[in-house]
């Protein structure tokens, strides 16, 4: 099969500048696509539902994307009111895959009906490089849950 000229590959991938998960998938196609896509990969990742979480997890465990995982500095997670998933986040997204993750932002957590998984806090402790934790519009059942989140992040400097 004939290869596309690199200029054409670059031009096509330039249109995906705002789709980080698709860019990560492009990195898996071949070296030419990886070279074109890596310049657009952001240092901030946004997860908004279980589908985007699954795609992000797939990207993290891919051997070809390990280099990208090392540059992620911010993880923004927006809880879904229809299908809550944040209570299992650290079990699916392993903190040691992102050694430079400094900012963890959790939005819209409601742990009144849904409780965090039993191993949530243990696996959250693998996010060893997180310095800044942001909780926006979060409703926790007890203050103890907030304290456990804070205690699980060993390098936390700012809440």
From TrEMBL:
InterPro entries: F-box-like_dom_sf, F-box_dom, LRR_dom_sf. It holds the Pfam family F-box-like. SUPFAM superfamilies: F-box domain. Residues 2-38 form the F-box domain. Gene3D superfamilies: Ribonuclease Inhibitor (3.80.10.10). This is F-box domain-containing protein.
């Amino acid at each position: 099969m004939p290869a596309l000229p690199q200029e054409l590959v670059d031009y096509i991938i330039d249109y995906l500048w705002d789709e980080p998960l698709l860019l990560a998938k492009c990195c898996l196609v071949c070296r030419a696509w990886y070279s074109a896509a890596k310049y657009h990969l952001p240092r901030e990742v946004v997860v908004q539902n279980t589908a985007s979480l699954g795609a992000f997890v797939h990207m993290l465990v891919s051997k070809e994307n390990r280099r990208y995982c090392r540059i992620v500095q911010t993880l923004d997670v927006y809880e879904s009111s229809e299908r809550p998933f944040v209570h299992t986040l650290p079990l699916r997204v392993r903190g040691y895959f992102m050694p430079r993750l400094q900012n963890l932002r959790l939005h819209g957590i409601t742990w009144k009906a849904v409780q965090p998984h039993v191993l949530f806090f243990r696996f959250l402790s693998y996010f060893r490089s997180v310095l800044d934790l942001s909780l926006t519009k979060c409703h926790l059942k007890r203050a103890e849950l907030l304290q456990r989140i804070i205690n699980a992040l060993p390098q936390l400097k700012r809440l």
